[in-house]
Amino acid sequence: MAIDVSQRFIFDDTDIRGDIVSLSGCFKEIITDNDYPPGVAALLGEFLVASVLMSSTIKFEGRLVLQARGKGDLSLLMAEVTHDRQIRGIARYKQDVSTPDMQTLFAGGALAVTIEPANGERYQSLVPIAGSKLSDCLEHYFEQSEQLSTSITLASAHDAVSGLLLQQLPSQLVTDVTERANQWQHVTVLTNTLTDEELITLSGTDVLSRLFVEEQVRLLDENNIQFRCTCSTERTARALVLIDSAELDAMFDETAVIEMNCEFCSKQYAFSRQTLTEVLEGERNIN
Ligand SMILES: [Zn+2]
């Protein structure tokens, strides 16, 4: 069965909370649509899980985009998640990546985290590539931007990806600095004993009972995640007319119908000169 869920857990006596995300059905749909090679697929999967984990730490309405651009084998990795947990993602690559080392793949580059609120201005944070793994870079990001200790574990297999996030919240239940530090260390040390295979295959309940035998921890309700693309005829038409008009004329001289494929979901769109004009005029009338 395809399981695509995110689930929060909380400890009764510490200011630490966690989120577990598992993607299988969504992940398979996304990678099969584009026929990504295994190394690229695994890294894209990590980006997808990471974007869902990050979105769970903030309140927003709109979408969060996590992306990295490189000059080598991978030119783009991008994962998007909306506040209601609809995800999509793409990778552009020259060839498969066998050892997905972030510092090699995106040398000299940065990760970008963009929040696009449904209403209001988008804002972007650049995250330095501070380690060889995506999780290292994101932990660094939280440390810098939120000043909250955060631990992220990501694991990918050929047909599923999972992630676990722990975050120490501002002091509420425990005010003693040393006790807070000890609790954080205790919980993260336990979490580090989880293997990739366990994170991929175990349910949220089983992960918690495997890790936290003596701690008072509660798992909250599951939230479903869906793969949904936001492409449309109108958006594709708008993207098409961004092309230089002389170039567009030349394209229509060559072929009666211009075909465009959505990079995210592979959906095909076709426009003749007439249908393109009609779509854009229809848009204008609405606005
Ligand atoms: Zn699409």
Short structural description:
The protein is an alpha+beta fold and 287 residues long.
Notes on the structure:
It is a single chain. The protein has 287 residues and is of the alpha+beta class. It folds into two domains: 5-227, Hsp33 domain; 233-286, CBS domain Like, CATH 3.90.1280. The protein is built from ten helices and 13 strands. It has a six-stranded mixed β-sheet with strand order 7-6-3-4-5-11, with helices on one face. Strands 8-9-2-1-10 form a five-stranded antiparallel β-sheet, sandwiched between helices. A two-stranded antiparallel ribbon has the order 12-13. Strand 3 (62-69) and strand 4 form a beta hairpin. The radius of gyration is 21 Å and the shape is elongated. The mean pLDDT is 92.
Classify the beta-strand content into a percent band. 25-35%
* CATH homologous superfamily descriptor of the largest domain: Hsp33 domain
Q: Could you say which overall geometry the principal axes of the C-alpha atoms support?
A: elongated
**CATH T-level topology of the largest domain:** Hsp33 domain
User: Order of SSEs, N→C?
Assistant: EEHHEEEHEEHEEHHHEEHHEEH
Spans with pLDDT under 50 lasting ≥5 residues?
A: none
CATH class of the largest domain: Alpha Beta
Spatial gap, N to C terminus: 43 Å
Named at the architecture level, the CATH assignment of the largest domain is: 3-Layer(bab) Sandwich
Q: Provide the structure class.
A: alpha+beta
Number of helices: 10
Overall pLDDT score: 92
